[in-house]
Amino acid sequence: MNKVDSEYEIRKQICEIGNRMYDKSFVAANDGNISVRLGDKMIIVTPTGVSKGNMKPEQLVKMDIDGKVYGKNLPSSEVKMHIEVYNQNPKLRAVCHAHPPISTAFAVAGIALDKPILAEAVVLLGVVPVAKYATPGTEEVPNSIKEYVNNHNAVLLANHGLLTWGETLEQAWFRMESTEHYGKILLYVKQIGPAREFNRQQLDELIKIKHRIDGTTEDSSTSDIDISNLSDYQIEELIKAVTQKVLDKL
Fold it and tell me: Phi/psi of residue 30, each to 5°?
């Protein structure tokens, strides 16, 4: 596959993800934006003012990460936060932004998705924090997400929506789907009753699975504490502290 074919395939993939966003009601009207990185300096990004459910490959915008646009169409006004993601972590190749209703509701409420209740969420997603509020389309937005890019897989944008990233476009999209699903389960649990969170042993097993998947090493600091002489209350508080420490590293 030559360079031109490769770029066109990426454009088609972005359009396909845009269709999925729209079909799942993660966006309305002209909401949302998607980008994929080409090489070190170039990106393909969705244009401003176009529905994600009705995009054509030729409408997408090619630009460099310094802001120079190649072609007549203008990029999304929120492309700055995409560029910030790429600048913060060169391994990342795709970014998705949308307004999934449940994730966005948590963002509006300022509530992070950080409860260890689903194995898949712990292993594949990790904590989804809330970035401080930033006016859309301004420099405040990329500044608000800087601290999260290298330590998380997604971030809720306060009073705004959800931003996810990945080493492929499919991975960035799956993280968006997973975040919304996680939020839906949490919402249902809040209506039914208290969540039964994983205990320390269960979390340790999940973290081991995550390390095997990621090819990373374990941090023994979560498994060398003697709890034999602690009260039930102290054990419960310790589990909470360890859980947060572990999840912060996901």
Answer: -100, 20
Q: Respond yes or no: is residue 140 known to be catalytic.
A: no
Domain with CATH 3.40.225.10 in the chain: 3-192
pTM of the predicted protein model: 0.82
* Distance (Å) of CA 18 to CA 15, 87, 97, 122, 132: 5, 24, 10, 27, 26
Superfamily of domain 3-192: Class II aldolase/adducin N-terminal domain (3.40.225.10)
The answer to whether the CB of 46 falls within 8 A of the CB of 34 is yes
Q: What is the DSSP letter of 47?
A: B
Per the CB < 8 A criterion, the answer to whether 92 and 32 are in contact is: no
Beta strands at 130-131 and 94-98: parallel, antiparallel or unpaired: unpaired
Does the CA dihedral 60-158-93-171 come out positive or negative? negative
What is the 3-state composition of the chain as percent helix, strand, coil, each rounded to the nearest 5? 45, 15, 40
- For the chain, the maximum distance between any two Cα atoms, rounded to a whole number of angstroms, is 69
Q: How far apart (Å, rounded) are the C-alpha atoms in residues 79 and 142? A: 9
84 touches 147 (CB < 8 A): no
CA gap 95, 35 in Å, rounded = 5
What are the average pLDDT values for consecutive 10-residue runs of the chain, which has 250 residues? 72 98 97 96 97 97 97 95 97 98 98 89 89 92 96 97 97 97 94 85 81 62 42 48 53
Task: Name the 3-class secondary structure at 162.
Answer: strand
What does the alpha-carbon distance between residue 149 and residue 154 come to, in Å, rounded to a whole number?
8
Choose the catalytic residue: 7, 9, 16, 78: 78
